[in-house]
Give the backbone structure.
Amino acid sequence: MSVRYCRPTDAPINLPNTPGVRTYVLGPPEDEGLIKRSAPTKKGAEVYEFSGDLMMDEQIAAAFERLGGQMNATQDDCPFDTSFRRGAEPPSTASTQLQELMRETWNKESWRQISHDWTAVAEALALNLDKHTNNTGLVVAFELVDSGKVLLFAADAQVGNWLSWQGLQWALDSAGNGKVTTGPDLLSRTAFYKVGHHGSHNATLRTLGLEQMVSRDLVAFIPVNKEQAEKNRWYEMPFEPLVKRLKDKAGGRLVISDPKTPPPDKAALAVLSERDRKTFLKNLRRGPKGDNLYWEFKVSL
């Protein structure tokens, strides 16, 4: 299956062998400023809570624990893999002239040394590069034409990516009769939401995101391995305030594909009608290995 990039002014894509399905590309945004806008602002309240400073605090703490000589200090704050790190001492293979220059400048004149400056700058550079990479992810929405339901796959889209969808529109009628679909319209009809970036705090917007998903059929899935996330020091993934709101919006129909997290049971789905509860449970099926890591879900046309 081939997919071409669809700009906001293009018509939605009709994929071969998938009649009755329109495909919309929402992101990444073409505005570089929005790509670089990954974190929410405290004043803007774009997401459900603000925890953007948490990771930076932990990285700085780890850096100074190690510099203080703690034996069990982690390396998680370092921006580069161990194999790419180099110490301040000149290599033994360096020329005699270079070693002499280092002794006369680096060792004697402390103002030339930048030994620990990386704790404030270098790691932020590497982590920001990774953060902006997330925000360039391909965001796709599939519209089931007959029912109008939308399946939204947000990849790792973060704040700026989500904001860009508000101004998107696609012409549905090549004859120019004015029929259009907009980004907010797709959100309002979203019946299946693959939650962005493992449920992190900055990958699902509030007012201009989840709160626009008003379909009574909304189902959400979060792919995340909590144990691995904690090993990576991502202690708030998935982000609990977001998880709570997803459950509220979806009537309990939130599946977290974590090996140790069970699927929603009848008690979790108590707010649904008996019909909706049975339909959801009927359409949800474990993957071939029978664990909670992989799920299949059937969306009714």
About this structure: Residues 54-131 form one domain. The beta strands are 21-27, 139-144, 150-153, 169-171, 180-182, 190-194, 219-222, 254-256, 284-286, 295-297. The chain has nine helices and ten strands.
